[in-house]
Amino acid sequence: MKYLRTFELIEAVVRAGSIRKAAEDTHLTASALNRRIQNFEQEFGWPIFERLPRGMRLNPAGELLMQHIGLQRTDLARVQSQVADLSGERRGHISIACSQALLPYFMPDQIAIYRAAHPGVSFTVNVRDRTQAEQDLASFSSDLALVFEPVHLVDFEVLYALPQPVHAVFQRENAMARKPELRLHDCLAHKLVLPSAAYGVRHLLELAAARKGRSLAPIVETESFDLIRHYVTCEDAVGFQIPIGLSAEKQDTIAHRPLAERDVPVGRLLLGQKKGRTLPVASSKFGQQLVAALEQRAAH
Amino acid sequence: MKYLRTFELIEAVVRAGSIRKAAEDTHLTASALNRRIQNFEQEFGWPIFERLPRGMRLNPAGELLMQHIGLQRTDLARVQSQVADLSGERRGHISIACSQALLPYFMPDQIAIYRAAHPGVSFTVNVRDRTQAEQDLASFSSDLALVFEPVHLVDFEVLYALPQPVHAVFQRENAMARKPELRLHDCLAHKLVLPSAAYGVRHLLELAAARKGRSLAPIVETESFDLIRHYVTCEDAVGFQIPIGLSAEKQDTIAHRPLAERDVPVGRLLLGQKKGRTLPVASSKFGQQLVAALEQRAAH
DNA sequence: TGCAAGCGCTGCAAAAAATGCACCGCGTAT
DNA sequence: ATACGCGGTGCATTTTTTGCAGCGCTTGCA
User: Fold this and answer.
1) What is the pLDDT of residues B108-165, one digit of tens each?
2) Percent of chain A with pLDDT over 70
3) CATH code, A6
4) Are residues A173 and A258 in the same domain?
């Protein structure tokens, strides 16, 4: 869309931090780019950049403008998507920010199902912790967020909330596999493999431990849920995860059991969008599909 | 704003109904305008106009695009307004749709007060009946609406509601001036000067009359509240209006008294904006001023 | 039925705008 | 002191936009 070119160039300058670097990225000369910025500022009525000896930085007016640019671009995408829909074909691009736990099974399944029905739609899946996911929505970087225990919930419109108890994960030979439900102290007796502090599971466990006057001393702390799942088979340790990220297969080498609700509060996996925003058709419909899929899980 | 030129041209074609007429309005040649439309459609990916033998008309895709254009323009105004505000000066333009009753006293006062504090702000005051006012908000034609008894209330976010009983208006020599409050049948005994059906006062009166099994037979029916006010002195008739549109001056040649609430329901004067929209600073602040002014009236 | 009028659209030349190049002044780091 | 990277500017060049003339088409009217 050519009339958005100036906005793209402004964004390039913001990213690059200087006109000369942005000029390289955008395959323009610095002088041409410089003049476009200057012309825009004149039309706009105020400077949008601070000129520093080392380059350019947005001033407050520029920050406000960037919001407008974001809204502008996403709203255009919404219109394009609606227009494509009335021509019968569903086209477009869906970006979703989601917790790591959704990556192994849930998201791939859901995307495949959607794409089978609408091959013209492409996806961006951004892995985000619970803080980042909300920022992603706010900055229009993602249309949807599916995240465990988000923090602020400002500007976050909840489309569906799925309760998810924290599960302990261990190798299937472990004695804990014999109980249907575990107490926190059962787990704390073992070696712990924990996700790092940014994650909701860790947050809930910390809360629960503090309530019992215990503290968590993991032997391994990691950002990778994959590593947690695999490590427990290496050293007979206990990891923690939410069930949507775990396989239901019986013949798996690892087993998992829920923690008692009276020990560790049940977390919520929230599907949401930016409050007040009208999503493109594709994103909106995919959101509905996710709601249906989550409802089905809740019914089990 | 030059990058919005294409949108302006599209809107001109929509208004004019043909490229050639729009070309005159926009001081371009038909060929240049034609090519801009064609180029835009190509970039956009779909035609936005139907080509008829008599000219151009928006197709459904074009209708969707027009929404985007409206949002785009108003959001830019919002940003400009916010930027102006952070430079200390308040600038911008406020458009308000309001009922006719606000024109003689309330709106001029309020605008003068606001402009005394912020001379850089200009106003558009659109006189609209209760149906049109809501359409104005929806189409971004007005930032605010101050309207008596609106109809639908969809997409209408109420900022303040002021109760307004219907008042009867007559020349001060009329015997009714001696009572503090009037019954409906008192008025129906007189010659009636009524606003036309689009207005809330008429609507309330019709409801009240129907409830009593009476019908309204006005000797004069008009869209002009001004005419109503003045006519009652010409023939000793009774008009009806809401108090915010009436002077409180004692020495006036006309008097007015409220109708009993048990006869005619009290209407509401609603201040509102389009639901979900973030107004420019100027409009938002003016809205706050109006709320304060209406609150003060309510306290009396 | 023929004809004028109005419509969208197109080839081509002229006008306008955007771009690239060379270069300036300035502050900073080496 | 010097070299580097920064934003900004004058000028020639390239690209884009515009105006002009004219095409084919449909509609309304004599």
Assistant:
1) 889 989 999 998 888 888 888 888 898 889 888 899 999 998 887 788 889 999 999 9
2) 99
3) 1.10.10.10
4) yes
Contact A160, A291 (CB under 8 A): yes
Asked whether the predicted pLDDT for residue A293 surpasses 80, the reply is yes
**CATH number of domain containing B281:** 3.40.190.10
Asked, for residue B287, whether it belongs to a domain, the answer is yes
CA A233 to chain centre: 28
Cα B102 from Cα B98, distance rounded (Å): 7
Q: What is the pTM of this model?
A: 0.74
Q: Which chain A residues are within 8 Å of B44, Cβ to Cβ?
A: 1, 80
Cα separation, A122 vs A286, whole angstroms: 11
In whole angstroms, C25 C1' to B276 CA is 50
Chain B residues touching residue A72 (CB < 8 angstroms)? 72, 75
Tell which strand C nucleotides have any atom below 7 Å from a protein Cβ. 6-11, 18-23, 26-28
The pLDDT of residue A251: 67
Residue type, A19: I
Residue A66 contacts B where some CB pair is shorter than 8 Å: no
Domain that holds residue B287: 90-163+268-299
Q: Which residues of A touch B43 (CB under 8 A)?
A: 1-2
Token digits for B149? 């008894």
Q: Is B120 on the interface with A (CB under 8 A)?
A: no
Are A251 and A284 in a shared domain?
A: no
A80 to B6: CB separation less than 8 angstroms, yes or no: no
Shared domain for B273 and B260, answered yes or no, is no
Distance of alpha carbon B173 from alpha carbon B169, whole angstroms = 12
Q: Are residues A255 and A172 in the same domain?
A: yes
Q: Are residues A244 and A275 in the same domain?
A: no
